[in-house]
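Researcher: I'm preparing a figure for a lab meeting and need a structural model of a single chain. I don't have an experimental structure, so a prediction will have to do for now. The sequence is pasted below. Please return the structure as tokens so I can convert it later.
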Amino acid sequence: MPVWIRRLPRRLALGAAMLVVALLALRIWDSQRGPPLAPWHLVVPEELRAAALDAADWPAYLASEAAAFATVRQKVTEALAPEDQVPANRYFAGSPLYPANFAQDWNRSFVLEPTGGEPLGAVVLLHGLTDAPFSLRHIGARYRDRGWVVVGIRLPGHGTVPAGLTDVTWEDWQAATRLAVREARRRVGPDRPLHIVGFSNGGALAVQYALDAVVDPRLPRADRLVLVSPMIGITAFARFAGLAALPAYFPRFAKAAWLGIVPEFIPFKYNSFPVNGAWQSHRLTAALQAQVQRLAADGRLAQLPPILTFQSVVDFTVSTRAVVAALYDRLPAKGSELVLFDINRNAKLGPLITPATNAALDRLLPAGARAYRATVIANAGPGQAEAVERVTEAGTTEESVRRIGLAWPRDVFSLSHVALPFPASDGLYGLDPDPADALGVQLGALAVRGERGVLTVSPEALTRVSSNPFFPYLLARIEEGIAPAR
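Model: Understood. Here is the structure written out token by token.
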């Protein structure tokens, strides 16, 4: 054997090692740019972990949550340097964005009780990654108004400071989900209906819980899942996100633990994003998809409850393709439905819309019968802002069309991942915010036009549509599965 062939494995190993070193050096260089870490990137409030959550009840969780918020108040808010005491900082007590100054701090777990008599059912609300219980408050209010008790849990690591996501695992979120379901079932007894509503990462947790309940008879089963922009799959980058944080093992390079360090100006959502958040989401979606495959192979997916999902055809945060291929295409015929919001084909953008976006819907729903009901919210016709519902029932290929009485706003060309659970009237994210729902700033209504360098935040952060012009339709479809009010 020639000498060069014998030496090839050593040379390949050396080349791979040099490549890893180069990539880590590049990561170190990139992470050191930008602003320094602030107290909310460094203080990690202590929270209950998975084993403790499985042994806890709702009052114990609320007590732990209160202690975490007390830590934030003492070690962040009361310790802010003068340069951080600005109106655009949600952690400054004098800011109009400071959550504790509002009538209700929607970063905290909550329970909504129906008025008059025993609840007709119970629903658990699971918010998304970097998010807070705030995101599902409108859906929760409709359940309450229909006579249901609502349990909106703040998942560990959320609602406090972004640093909370640097020391949390998806198993902690999974255990918190089990705790919330136990509380919901306790409040209504064993015979009344139980729903789980999950947004984004919370959607993944909702499906994971339902899968676990199939194989573990000790877990109370849900009667229905409602998923909003569910995180069934994410980008391939997240698989390797943990490597990006390797330099952070050295204190000098602590910023490498973060994929984004930006101002915190949203009262109920983190803007800064740690590597661990992406890594835990990848772990969750990988476990979810593997479990779906196992139960499908065993013929046990029929034991899942019906699933109603709302998803934008275009989604920068999660994989819409995974919602279809990794979940819906594997579901047996059992009354599940996928509602897709198409792009606004009446938007006057013409060639500026990418060919891939124009073809996205056809790729997601190729011709042929499906085991689930497929609904598309789309323009009524070329050049029309009016929207219609295009429905293909399970097991058929015929499409029916129904007017829904809603239309695309002239200046919105698509929905976004974050927009779906918020009405246009939402005080924070709405395109037409309700003045009575004052939350410090009206992010969704801002028309970002002006000179560079004027705003304390990037204009790009304000151009993503953050509310859903079709929210009344979404709410009506959810309501179809809720027992009538008294």
